[in-house]
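P.,

For your records, the input lines for the assembly:
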Amino acid sequence: MSKIKLAVIYYSSTGTNYEMAQAAVQAARQAGAEVRLLKIRETAPQEAVNSKPEWKALTERTQNIPEVTLADLEWADAYLFSTPTRYGGAASQTRAFMDSTGPLWATGKLANKLVSVMTSAQNPNGGQETTLQNMYISLMHWGAILVPPGYTDQSIFQAGGNPYGTSVTATGQGVDEASKKAIEHQTRRLLEVARFYLSGRENSQQVSAD
Amino acid sequence: MSKIKLAVIYYSSTGTNYEMAQAAVQAARQAGAEVRLLKIRETAPQEAVNSKPEWKALTERTQNIPEVTLADLEWADAYLFSTPTRYGGAASQTRAFMDSTGPLWATGKLANKLVSVMTSAQNPNGGQETTLQNMYISLMHWGAILVPPGYTDQSIFQAGGNPYGTSVTATGQGVDEASKKAIEHQTRRLLEVARFYLSGRENSQQVSAD
Amino acid sequence: MSKIKLAVIYYSSTGTNYEMAQAAVQAARQAGAEVRLLKIRETAPQEAVNSKPEWKALTERTQNIPEVTLADLEWADAYLFSTPTRYGGAASQTRAFMDSTGPLWATGKLANKLVSVMTSAQNPNGGQETTLQNMYISLMHWGAILVPPGYTDQSIFQAGGNPYGTSVTATGQGVDEASKKAIEHQTRRLLEVARFYLSGRENSQQVSAD
Amino acid sequence: MSKIKLAVIYYSSTGTNYEMAQAAVQAARQAGAEVRLLKIRETAPQEAVNSKPEWKALTERTQNIPEVTLADLEWADAYLFSTPTRYGGAASQTRAFMDSTGPLWATGKLANKLVSVMTSAQNPNGGQETTLQNMYISLMHWGAILVPPGYTDQSIFQAGGNPYGTSVTATGQGVDEASKKAIEHQTRRLLEVARFYLSGRENSQQVSAD
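Structure tokens returned:
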């Protein structure tokens, strides 16, 4: 069968989720997937962005990364989201992108995508679980097939033991190695489930067409 | 003691939550509260708003309602939120406003507010419960005291039996009478709890000052 | 490939979830699956059961249905749970069964199962969404692949529009036809996703073994 | 006014939540409350308890602590729950107790109680947030006034930054000092909110009675 098409979709203001998304992209390419790294459009006013040096710097550093579009969602077989928490929910930038998908949703084209979610927060228990649930709930509305990591690998325990998705405590020191290993596992698992599902679906259609 | 200061804060695109907020305002004024009806700022592009006649019409019809500010949050003793669901979470406009409160949060001024939440969705079970939870989770981050209605009145059963807050199925026909009665109860209950809490706190401080 | 093995696992005290489970079993058999209808063990004291005539009657009527065991969980490729809500979470009988799965969980044998959940409540918004989430969260701990229905069929809208799983308002009048159609769709969809996933996995292993 | 009546209600199998509950009881008594330490009845079979030495030992060590009853729920002004997580939800023992409260709920006697919740899990992100939400959702059904700690004290940040309630990673080494300080704060805050609310309510009734 053809390569799995994976959209790694992130929002980031200070860089943590950008770094998480990059780790996922690398793991996905090594696993043979066709990958698009896509950023979620900024909705905060320019002055808000400019008021925080690291936010401004990241915006400039990532200006060449394409913004995710509905066409990307239609193209991909699987989505891996990475979004910071804000008060226990996904950042409003992420939510604004979710809210913009109505036209695709209405045609049924968001259904049957394989999905998984990652997040970061400033405190270890400051929304690292609830934010992932906030995203999974929305993805259920899309008709997605959810592939959270569970406890399917030792790396998950090393990274804080979050069975819903890799979650990072944003310390300003970058993403630690344990979290990167958990991200790699989460990515590979998502791709494996997607490959099994899609190849089974493809074979089924070939059989029907015979 | 002085009047309870209530901020009724809503986001609406088709009018359901605007009508819900108005019902709450009326009930709150009848109960003797000092009330501000406040709308959440639109973040969607103007062309999106204009593309839907009823969204555009509502925007024009409500242009004189003030947009909620951080000063309103500081002023109020109690908040009653009304927000539509989007894929099982609060509308991104609502989330964008929540996300903007960092400066107030950091000074502790969001703590100890009495809060309650209402919502609407297109389907009876299309996020009417999860959206309220999405909001309550965030309000926990603020240090709020949560006053959901529970099953403290018969009107709640008549309106669909949502113990987390009044939730309306948006049919385009306006808010039904049963829901309005549930909104009135939810509002009065929030105010009563706020009054007891605030008068108790006021008395405590007077005693301390003696 | 061989037939999909589906465990339809329910708890019921007044009969609603038993009827929902039966509708799922019928749809699954028609779709060619190998199905086990399994009830969750009662944990309430006998006098509690006896104190309510319909609870006692159901217990007697279903005494020949086997109680779900860890061996059933290991046997099945896919699980369809049906559980009443209790205060917005799954009934404690259901939770007691979940809690008993530690030995299987620890060996990794609960991972990679395809799962979906249904529920009932006395009020339309009395936990029909939150109960499903309570179950899905736990199933994420198991390493499951989640297959909620989303809005992938018109029957879902007719049955209340719950994208997380079919949910029934328990009126004492049995499960309505609209809900039965939604259950049938949810069951068929779970089986289809399971079939694609499992046949893809089987083919992958054959290729590896060549 | 009279002393606040606080029920500290816990379930524990390995001792973590028992220790958390004890820390809360001590803080509450120092704050002048009338406190009952109450354990939730074991529902696991005796052989399950006996099969784990520390579970058996705790059962024996706590045999003189009274089991919580509906009369306790009616008596108390405020509840502080402490329950371990099981797969991201509260332990089934805790849920079984919740489920048994129907008779009290139906008479409205569970309404208007001030509540807060604590938890523990084996992994830092292994359900420490979702379990608290599972409990708060149920308490909303009871008509409770929710008093999660938010970020109202520095001790919360030191203890992992969980704004929903103190949560402890159960290491088998007992509850750490940082968590104890967070428990003390959570307890004092619950009592303070309860005192303000109740004294305000009492004064209101005296005024009405004049």
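Two observations worth noting. Residues 110 and 138 of chain B are 12 Å apart (CA to CA). Chain B has one domain: 5-209.

Regards
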